[in-house]
Write a structure and sequence with these properties.
The protein starts with a helix and ends with a helix. The chain has 12 helices and 15 strands. The protein has 4 domains: 1-50, no CATH class; 53-91 and 166-249, Roll (Outer membrane lipoprotein wza fold like); 98-162, wza like domain (wza like fold); 253-368, Outer membrane lipoprotein wza domain like (Outer membrane lipoprotein wza fold like). The protein is rod-shaped and about 95 Å long. The strands form 4 sheets. The chain has a 5-stranded mixed sheet. Strands 12-11-15-13-14 form a 5-stranded mixed sheet, covered by helices on one side. It has helices at residues 2-14, 17-25, 29-51, 56-65, 77-85, 136-147, 188-194, 224-229, 276-282, 312-318, 343-348, 352-368; strands spanning 98-103, 111-114, 120-123, 127-130, 156-162, 167-172, 178-181, 209-214, 218-223, 244-247, 254-259, 265-268, 295-298, 308-310, 332-335. With 369 residues, the protein is of the alpha+beta class.
Amino acid sequence: MIRVCIEVYKEYQIVTGVLYINKMLNIKKDYIACFILLTSIIFSGCVSSKMETKEPGDIHNLALNNMDNDDIPFATPEIIKMYEANLAKEYYIGPGDQIKIDIWNRPELSGEHLVGPYGMITLPLLGELNIGGNTVKDATKSIKEAYSKLYSDPIVMVTVLKYMNNKVYVLGRVSNPGIIHLDGHATILEALSMAGGLPTVDKSAFLSKCYIIRGKEQIIWIDLLQLLGKANLKLNIGLANNDIIYIPDSTDASVFVMGEVNNPGSYPIQTSGMSFLDAINQAGGPTENANKTKIHLIRDMREQKSPIIIDLDEFLKNGDFSQNQTLQDNDIIYVPKKGIASFNYYLRQIDPFLRTFITGNIIQDEILD
């Protein structure tokens, strides 16, 4: 039986797809039973290992693995709550902070200090003391213990005068990219406002998305169209020290207008509310040979079962603005010709991943006409 299992496993590695299925249909029943047992063990191990990871970092390790997909794994309000639950509740003193140390009845020992690059300060009579990474409470305790070697029960108070260690980095499509120092807890909206918003040199750009890099293994995508355009404040995520916020260029988002239009091609989504009619107008409008009653809007082929059919004549005749779809990144608008004579030409211009999907729906519709 062991030998049978080995042989079946070899077959599993070598044969794939339809060939594999056909071959498996012809083997003996004990081979099939052994194969099912072996496969269930393998897959059950994979599933159990995935189900054990529930931390936010693990969730976005998965998000990082999905970055090759067309979809951006935007953080949901539930995931954002998980991240905010892990935010520090107290401030940690660090390099660049300016603090004041008051020791009661010891003015010669009191004064202001600048925390050095490695968290060090220099205390009178004692020399260097490392308070980097300490809360105010912990720093007060450390200083008191240090002076207790010279004085009986000193009374120490530490105050942070200037917060420089609490910072985030805002990069990308903003007017003032760089380091932003925060006095306390801050959110993504505060950071973006402090970074100056969008550059004024490009009126066509807009904030559509950004990602936050936290630590070495976490990345959080934020849908800014939902946050800013639709005021979904549940996405206004709280920031952690040393977060990196990157806003990609919004002109990277584009739609494709193909078929019977005067200027087919790729068009950047230049406003956060770019519509179907906007795209058609940018492409020069339909040609005289266009079938304006069967315009196809193709979106996310893995989820959409069929294209959205838009009747431009009905839209313009009756003012049916429900057909004026708001466009998304990578949408494809295909304006067919009257008949299907030139359809194969346009089909060749489309990525092979989309051909099977488009062919079945459009040809069927044209034949019915």
